UniProtKB/TrEMBL annotation:
InterPro entries xref list: GerMN
PROSITE patterns found in the cross-reference section: PROKAR_LIPOPROTEIN
Compositional bias segments (type: Basic and acidic residues): 330-345
Organism: Neobacillus bataviensis LMG 21833
SMART domains, A to Z: Germane
Pfam family, one: Germane
Stretch list, region Disordered: 330-351
The protein's name: Germination protein gerM
Length: 351
């Protein structure tokens, strides 16, 4: 879906904590302008050391964790929640994916957990290989057939957010699973992010001669938008993976999709992306501007670029230029002259 459709839907985007210091989807809170009161009474109430210590302890005792949940449209979407600090972060993350479990009250409206109710589990991570083996109880098989692929994607992407997990193996009652127990979906020997998420094969004629790339579009609704990873298929003959990612962003999601894109169809790269020391540099034409008069680029568009390209192996930062100039601004008037890194966590709040 194009930028024009996104505008019709009333998309209002805010920035990333990495791109904008402190507001937007990647971190921080959205601020609202309010009319000041006609009179203000100030009470100098001291803040006790005990209060300060409690607030500090509250922050120190939580860990921001991405949980891959299912949204109302059926997409598997990361939502970053503050979970209790623990030495078993990977196991805890999966436990919060159990329906009607300990994470029930924390799950945002419009989302649901992916693992069947009463499922118990253990997680064993081999430091040498980065393989995480998850052993589920027998309750794991009590899910709806249509959720089967989504469960695989959710478990894989939730676990691989942790630096010490590269691939995932699944077991049930101590026995290795080579296929899912309800609908028989084959399970790769080493599940990874390369396996894909929210896989879109629309308009793909010969899937055998394609390879996957994951890009980020925008889902949700007004006052509650978020980024959704989608795995598309590109031709095996495509040599420039970075350009292919950008082209999928410009093309936008499938017409059958409820997702939207901030790109317009006539936005394009003026030259091949350049890669050096973990940084990809992109040079766009002026049609990337959200406002031609102000020469501003939508922050949400920049966010989708950074999220999508840093899914590529070896990409740590993205530099964006317009007509060869690095001095561009986002739609908040913030100058963006330095390469941008991927945020630690995605979808830390609605925007």
């Amino acid at each position: 879906m194009s930028k024009n459709k996104a505008k019709i839907l009333g998309v209002t985007m805010l920035g990333s904590a990495v791109l904008l210091s402190g507001c937007g989807l990647f971190g921080g809170e959205t601020q609202k302008k309010i009319d000041p009161p006609k009179s203000v009474t100030v009470t100098n109430k001291p803040v006790s050391k005990e209060t300060t210590a409690k607030e500090k302890s509250k922050v120190e005792n939580v860990i921001k964790t991405e949980l891959y949940l299912i949204d109302k449209d059926g997409y598997v979407v990361p939502q970053t929640l503050n979970l209790p600090k623990t030495t078993s972060v990977a196991k805890q993350a999966l436990e919060y994916l159990v329906a009607n479990g300990q994470g029930t009250d924390m799950i945002p409206n419009g989302f649901r957990a992916v693992l069947p109710e009463d499922t118990t589990l253990s997680v064993d991570i081999k430091k040498e290989t980065g393989v995480a083996t998850v052993n589920f109880s027998k309750e794991f098989k009590d899910y709806k057939p249509e959720d089967e692929a989504k469960i695989l994607q959710s478990v894989t992407w939730t676990l691989t957010q942790f630096d010490n997990v590269k691939t995932v193996k699944l077991q049930m009652n101590g026995h290795e699973l080579t296929e899912m127990p309800v609908n028989g979906t084959p399970i790769s020997q080493n599940l990874s992010r390369a396996t894909g998420i929210n896989i879109d094969t629309n308009d793909v004629v010969d899937i055998a001669n394609t390879k996957p790339v994951t890009v980020y579009y925008i889902g949700g609704e007004e006052d509650s938008y978020y980024y959704v990873p989608v795995t598309r298929r590109i031709s095996n003959t495509e040599k420039d993976q970075y350009a292919a990612v950008v082209n999928e962003l410009i093309k936008g999601p499938s017409a059958k999709s409820t997702l939207v894109s901030e790109f317009v169809n006539d936005a394009k790269l003026l030259e091949a992306p350049k890669y050096k020391d973990g940084v990809v540099t992109l040079n766009f034409n002026k049609n990337i501007y959200d406002s031609f008069d102000k020469k501003e680029v939508s922050q949400s568009l920049l966010d989708t670029i950074v999220l999508s390209l840093t899914e590529q192996q070896g990409v740590e930062k993205v530099a964006v230029q317009v007509d060869g100039k690095a001095e561009i601004k986002n739609d908040k008037g913030k100058k963006l002259s330095e390469p941008v890194t991927r945020p630690e966590k995605v979808n830390t709040g609605s925007f």
